[in-house]
Amino acid sequence: MAISEKLEQALNKQLNEELFSSYLYLSMAADFEDKNYTGFASWMRVQFQEEQFHAMKFYDYIVQRGGKVLLEQIAKPKSNWETPLSAFKAAFLHETLITKKINNLVNLSREENDHATESFLKWFVDEQVEEEASSEEVVKNLEMIHEDKSALFLYNRELGKRVFQSSSTE
Q1: Mind listing the pLDDT tens digit for each residue in 121-153?
Q2: Looking at residue 34, which CATH number applies to its domain?
Q3: Domain carrying residue 80
Q4: Which among 1, 24, 74, 165 is least buried, having the fewest CB atoms inside 10 angstroms?
Q5: How far is CA 152 from CA 36, 63, 67, in A?
Q6: What separation in angstroms does the CA of 56 have from each of 37, 39, 89?
């Protein structure tokens, strides 16, 4: 069964959202690099890779269902955040926005009576729980650290240990 035009358009829009997300996180990484927060930059680079992976899942699904992938222009993301906390708060808020968009896609797949798409989207519903939790954890830790430069130095180093593992996100 081919995917409906309405759902195809919505999935293409989400593909673009995932690409914007990757672009946003790469911009955050660049800002952290500029400020010598290499650990925070590394964390954001992993986020960039995860979002690219998410985008390709949408791409592949659209193709598998006989749809046409239509790429749109990616908006220019912000390029400077005052503090690591403000960047991670922005990342957390962005993830809550993406969660809402994924939930809307689930609702649309139900309206369209498209069980395959609903099943496909379950992975993203579960993934968004993890995405929100991981960014919120960093926000809470940075709030605890506040302006303690030694703690910030150590936390920056700790976050630099994160690596991208596509097998754990498939």
Answers
A1: 999 999 999 999 999 999 999 999 988 999 999
A2: 1.20.1260.10
A3: 5-162
A4: 1
A5: 12, 44, 47
A6: 29, 26, 26
Count of domains in the chain? 1
pLDDT in tens, 34-89: 999 999 999 999 999 999 999 999 999 999 999 999 999 999 999 999 999 999 99
Q: Phi/psi at 115 (nearest 5 deg)?
A: -70, -35
Contact of 164 with 50, CB cutoff 8 Å: yes
SS3 116: helix
- The DSSP line for 48-87 is HHHHHHHHHHHHHHHHHTT------PPPPPP---SSHHHH
Is 168 among the domain residues? no
Read off φ and ψ for residue 91, nearest 5 degrees: -65, -45
CA distances from 42 to 22, 110, 113, 132, 157 (A): 13, 38, 41, 18, 10
pTM over 0.70: yes
First to last CA, the chain: 24
Q: Who contacts 43 (Cβ-Cβ below 8 Å, separation ≥6)?
A: 138, 159, 160, 162
Alpha-carbon distances, residue 103 vs 33, 73, 82, 96, 122 (angstroms)? 34, 23, 31, 11, 10
